[in-house]
Amino acid sequence: MTATIKPFSIGTVELEAPVILAPMAGVCDAPYRVIAHRYGAALVCAEMVSSQGIRYRNQHTEELLHIEDGEHPLSMQIFGSDPEVMAQAAAVVEEAGADIVDINMGCPVKKVVKNGDGSALMKDLPLAEKVIRAVVRAVSIPVTVKMRTGWDDASFTAPELAKRAEAAGAAAVTVHGRTREQFYSGKADWQKIKAVVQAVSIPVIGNGDVVDGPSAAALMKETGCGAVMVGRGAQGNPWIFPQIRHYLATGEVLPPPTAMERYEQMLSHFEALLAYKGEYIGVREMRSHASWYTHGLYGSAALRERINRAASADEFRSIVRDMMDKAR
């Protein structure tokens, strides 16, 4: 890419572009993080990890802490509401090799918030600040906080939480422009992200409804945020990262990937997933990715039905290659 765009710094970590892959459970495993980096995500964020799981050495949790070559710079996200336990977890994350530790204060899922974790911390700002301060003291790498605008429409607490995060030593905050009660429905409120930008001097990363280059540029222009974080727009779509980078640099919209490019990348992703998780898990986890990769393609519904019935790696490959032959 010959065009240039401004780098973006989070504490001591300098990113070559203001374009970040969001942490998404079931999506941002090591294979996809490597893919996203290869396509142009300047920072990738791992799936959130339970601080209690780290404390008790849960096997699945320890697997989530594994970092592959090609992932750096990498942010690893932890969740919990006990300052001491979160501090211990952050130290483990740093030891695992993460470049940034991110504190989840935005997850809306019931099983998380019922324990006072995730977006529930937006209802207890003094505790949230204690958690941030404890994590900052426990590590030497930058600490960031990911939040929503508030618990519901009646509680716009993001600016105050961002101020407390800054006071506690956080290097940056990410704001998803929805409330907890919205989950992922409705439209993200970018004006509330703008209010957070105006409330603090540390960098603010905007998140919500970024689906291409123009929407990324619009979010940055409307809010004044320094970078964008891409969530659902990156599912089965690593091309979004070069599209955003190119648009921010030139104002030009790159063409979408062809059907053949999508099939080829899907197969490459599948092989990486097999190598990382084995055939049984790889075949089953790839079903979700395949539905995203093929969304909107001719015959995609029938293809997804066939893929969902595939029980082996060879069967999956055969189905996709059959579609590739038809696309030629």
UniProtKB/TrEMBL annotation:
It is an enzyme of class 1 (oxidoreductase). Keywords: Flavoprotein, FMN, NADP, Nucleotide-binding, Oxidoreductase, RNA-binding, tRNA processing, tRNA-binding. The active site is at C107. Signal peptide: none annotated. FMN binds at P23, M24, A25, Q77, K146, H176, G231, R232. It catalyses: a 5,6-dihydrouridine in tRNA + NADP(+) = a uridine in tRNA + NADPH + H(+); a 5,6-dihydrouridine in tRNA + NAD(+) = a uridine in tRNA + NADH + H(+). Transmembrane segments: none annotated. Its EC number is 1.3.1.-. InterPro entries: Aldolase_TIM, DUS-like_FMN-bd, DUS_fam, DusB-like, tRNA-dHydroUridine_Synthase_C, tRNA_hU_synthase_CS. Pfam families: Dus. GO terms for molecular function: flavin adenine dinucleotide binding; tRNA binding; tRNA dihydrouridine synthase activity. Residues 20-321 form the DUS-like FMN-binding domain. Its cofactor is FMN. Catalyzes the synthesis of 5,6-dihydrouridine (D), a modified base found in the D-loop of most tRNAs, via the reduction of the C5-C6 double bond in target uridines. Belongs to the dus family. This is tRNA-dihydrouridine synthase.
